[in-house]
C-alpha cells in the first residue's frame, strides 16, 4: 500500500476514556465519525490497562467493519500518563545526541530512578533554543507497539496531549510571553513560553475546584519564573469543562480555545452524552 493511501487512526488515550477517529485515504479523503468510550477510571498505578483494553476492542470492531491492515496509528496521550521537564538553552551542547543525553540527565534529576522504566523524548533538537522533555512508561509504550503489531497497523507516533494541543494553535499566538494550559478531568498541565523558549511547566492532579487550583498554580509558577507582567496572557484548552468560569480581575487574561480559524482536532476529548452518563459533565 502506498504511504499516500494509508488510512489513519487517531486516538485520544486517557484514564476513563478513549476517543478514536479514522481517516480513509483515497481520491477523496474522508473521516469517520468519532467513536468515544467514557467510563470510570481506576486509581491504581497501572490505570492505563483498562483504557488499553478498550482501545483494543475499538480497533477490533473497526477492523471487522473495514480492514485496517497498513493503517497508521497516532496516539495522543493524556497528561495523566506523561512526565515533563523543561531543558533550558544550552550553549555548550553541540548536537542532538548531547541534548538528548542532557535531557535524560534533567529527567533523572527531577524523578530519580523511575526514569529507568520510562521512554524519553524531546520536542526540539536545537540546543540553543531549549526543549521540552517528555517521558512515558516503557510498559505502556511496549503495549502500544504490541497492539499495532497484532492488528498489522503502523504505530506512527505517540504525542503528549500538551504538545499536540500546543502545536495545533501556537502559530496563532503573537505574544512574546504567554501561558498555555490544558485541562482534563482531574488534571491540569501548563507551560510558560517566553521569547520563543520553554520557561517552565507544571503537570498536576486536580483534587478540588479546577478554577481555584488553576489560579493558585498560575500564581505559583509566576513566582517561580521570577517575573510577572501586570496582565499575564493565558491560552486555555478545556473541552471537557465547557462551563469553566474564571475571574477577570486577578491579573490573568484568559483566551479560550479552540478559535474560529483553527478548530479542535476531531479525536481530542469533548463533553458528550457518554460523559454525562458517566458523571463527568
Description:
By secondary structure, the protein is an alpha/beta fold. It has six helices and 14 strands. The protein has helices at 48-65, 96-111, 138-150, 161-169, 210-225, 273-278; strands at 8-14, 17-24, 30-31, 35-38, 72-77, 83-87, 118-122, 131-137, 154-160, 177-184, 187-194, 197-205, 232-237, 252-257. Strands 1, 2, 3, 4, 5 and 9 form a six-stranded mixed β-sheet that branches. It has a five-stranded mixed β-sheet with strand order 12-11-10-13-14, with helices on both faces. Strands 6-8-7 form a three-stranded antiparallel β-sheet. Helix 1 (48-65) runs parallel beside helix 3.
Tally of individual helices: 6
Q: Looking at this structure, what is the CATH superfamily of the domain at 3-80 and 135-160?
A: ATPase, nucleotide binding domain
CATH class of the domain at 3-80 and 135-160: Alpha Beta
How far is the N terminus from the C terminus? 42 Å
Helical coverage, percent range: 25-40%
Structural class: alpha/beta
By CATH, the topology of the domain at 3-80 and 135-160 is: Nucleotidyltransferase, domain 5
Give the tally of β-strands. 14
SSE topology string: EEEEHEEHEEHEHEEEHEEH
Amino acid at each position: 500500500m502506498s504511504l499516500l493511501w494509508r488510512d489513519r487512526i487517531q486516538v485520544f488515550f486517557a484514564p476513563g476514556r478513549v476517543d478514536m477517529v479514522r481517516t480513509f485515504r483515497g481520491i477523496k479523503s474522508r473521516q469517520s465519525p468519532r467513536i468515544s468510550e467514557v467510563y470510570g477510571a481506576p486509581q491504581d498505578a497501572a490505570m492505563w490497562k483498562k483504557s488499553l483494553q478498550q482501545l483494543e476492542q475499538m480497533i477490533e470492531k473497526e477492523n471487522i467493519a473495514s480492514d485496517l491492515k497498513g493503517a497508521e496509528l497516532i496516539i495522543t496521550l493524556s497528561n495523566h500518563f506523561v512526565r515533563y521537564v523543561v531543558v533550558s538553552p544550552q550553549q555548550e551542547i553541540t548536537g542532538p545526541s548531547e541534548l538528548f543525553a542532557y535531557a535524560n540527565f534533567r529527567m533523572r534529576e527531577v524523578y530519580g530512578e523511575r526514569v529507568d522504566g520510562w521512554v524519553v523524548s524531546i520536542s526540539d533538537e536545537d540546543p540553543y533554543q531549549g526543549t521540552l522533555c517528555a517521558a512515558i512508561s516503557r510498559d505502556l509504550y511496549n503495549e502500544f507497539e504490541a497492539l499495532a503489531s497484532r492488528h498489522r497497523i503502523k504505530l506512527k507516533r505517540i504525542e503528549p496531549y500538551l504538545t499536540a494541543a500546543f502545536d495545533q494553535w501556537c502559530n496563532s499566538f503573537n505574544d512574546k510571553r504567554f501561558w498555555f494550559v490544558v485541562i482534563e478531568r482531574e488534571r491540569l498541565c501548563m507551560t510558560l513560553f517566553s521569547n520563543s523558549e520553554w520557561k517552565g511547566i507544571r503537570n498536576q492532579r486536580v483534587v478540588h475546584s479546577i478554577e481555584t487550583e488553576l489560579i493558585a498554580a498560575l500564581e505559583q509558577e509566576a513566582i517561580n519564573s521570577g517575573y510577572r507582567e501586570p496582565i499575564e496572557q493565558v491560552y486555555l484548552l478545556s473541552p471537557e469543562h465547557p462551563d469553566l468560569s474564571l475571574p477577570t480581575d486577578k491579573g490573568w487574561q484568559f483566551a479560550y480555545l479552540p478559535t474560529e480559524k483553527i478548530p479542535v482536532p476531531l479525536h481530542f476529548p469533548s463533553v458528550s452524552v457518554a460523559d454525562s452518563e458517566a458523571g463527568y459533565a
